[in-house]
């Protein structure tokens, strides 16, 4: 279940308004704790494969867990899920702007499933319009960030040695307007 | 003029240096220790630290950098810049590399990498860059990271893996030929400072 705070018509309306005016919104403590913990367990059991193109990216990836609650919530916002992917970053991982394998859709939704993570470890997600940074997202567990990305690019900062064995776990969802 | 800057031993061994440069793998490069005349490097080190370093951060890198030394008001750095721009320095580098180079320094600046700073893999190809060079002003090792990593290439020209790691040595001068396969990176620095001055020579 999505945090019930976000389920009311009033809050849905406020989120829509924020997206219309600012193009992005971040919802904290998005999933109910038990659902979130189940999701983390599912991710833990997911088989990840190394994905490397040295000039563009280095991370592990895997199939995204099915999250009907999130899809339904996005439908309330007028967004239709098109695809989703799980990306896991550890020390020495990164994703540059020119990741040619990945074209951002009209909307990108990022569910942050990162556990314990030091801010100094890097791994922030940055959306940019090419003229200047438009927003940087440090790790924030159980947060859902919705961004209108049709004219933006995205990168993930290099994860440095302060990450140690920890994982920066991100679920990226591509969506279109209904 | 050049004898006032570069150690005599290097000036007298250009043929041997050329062989080493041309036969280096994964692509032509050379690392020379005790390169500049004693005293010069200490002056440059002190002058550089007096200046301002500006934080640079993008998807590709994170480090600190001075403004282009072409506009420095520091006398020591100005003299060093003039030397790097000189015909004598150009000729010395031409003799070792066998490349036809233009006289003049390009985008010479000090760089400072501290804990967690890095430069991810790229090839340096821009404008007419033919030689990338670095004067190191710090000693680093396997524990501190900060090596210049040179990558080998696949048959299709894409980078394959780290083939050589060059750890900075104070007063070490390192340079490599810029080409479509000159893939390199600066390994993340761990709890250390990696101070250097770098720039490029352009091709004719």
Summarize this structure as a short list of keywords or feature phrases.
heterodimer, A: 178 residues, alpha+beta, eight-stranded antiparallel β-sheet, 3 helices, 20% helix, globular, B: 204 residues, eleven-stranded antiparallel β-sheet, 5 helices, 11 strands, 23% helix
Number of strand segments of chain A: 11
**Main sheet summary of chain A:** 8 strands, antiparallel
- Radius of gyration of chain A over alpha carbons? 16 Å
Instruction: Estimate the mean pLDDT confidence of chain B.
Output: 97
Distance between the termini of chain A: 22 Å
Unreliable spans of chain A: none
**What is the number of beta strands of chain B?**
11
Order of helices and strands of chain B: HHEHEEHHEEEEEEEE
Classification by helices and strands of chain A: alpha+beta
Oligomer description? heterodimer
Low-confidence segments of chain B: none
Main sheet makeup of chain B:
11 strands, antiparallel
Following the backbone from N to C, one meets helices and strands of chain A in this order, namely: HEHEEHEEEEEEEE
Radius of gyration of chain B: 16 Å
| Helix content range of chain B | 10-25%
Tell me the helix content of chain A.
Answer: 10-25%
- Name the chain pair whose interface involves the most residues: A-B, 16 and 14 residues
What's the overall geometry of chain B? Answer: globular
How many helix segments of chain B? 5
Task: Note the gap between the termini of chain B.
Answer: 23 Å
Please describe what this structure looks like.
The complex is a heterodimer of chains A (178) and B (204). Chain A is α+β, with helices and mostly antiparallel strands. Helices cover 20% and strands 36% of the residues of chain A. Chain A contains three helices and eleven strands. Chain A has helices at residues 9-22, 33-45, 68-76, and strands spanning 24-27, 49-53, 57-63, 79-89, 94-95, 107-112, 125-128, 133-137, 143-148, 153-156, 168-177. In chain A, strands 1, 2, 3, 4, 5, 6, 9 and 11 form an eight-stranded antiparallel beta sheet that branches. In chain A, strands 8-7-10 form a three-stranded antiparallel beta sheet, with no helix packed on it. With 204 residues, chain B is of the alpha+beta class. Chain B has helices spanning 8-11, 14-23, 40-50, 75-84, 87-97, and strands at 29-32, 54-57, 61-65, 106-113, 118-122, 129-136, 148-153, 159-166, 173-177, 184-186, 194-202. In chain B, strands 1, 2, 3, 4, 5, 6, 7, 8, 9, 10 and 11 form an eleven-stranded antiparallel beta sheet that branches. In chain B, a hairpin with a 3-residue loop joins strand 2 (54-57) and strand 3. In chain B, helix 2 (14-23) packs across helix 5. Chain B is globular. Chain B starts with 7 loop residues before the first helix and ends with a strand. The A-B interface holds A 54-55, 92, 94-97, 120, 122, 126, 155, 157-158, 160-162 and B 59-60, 62, 116, 118, 120-122, 151, 158-159, 183, 188, 190.
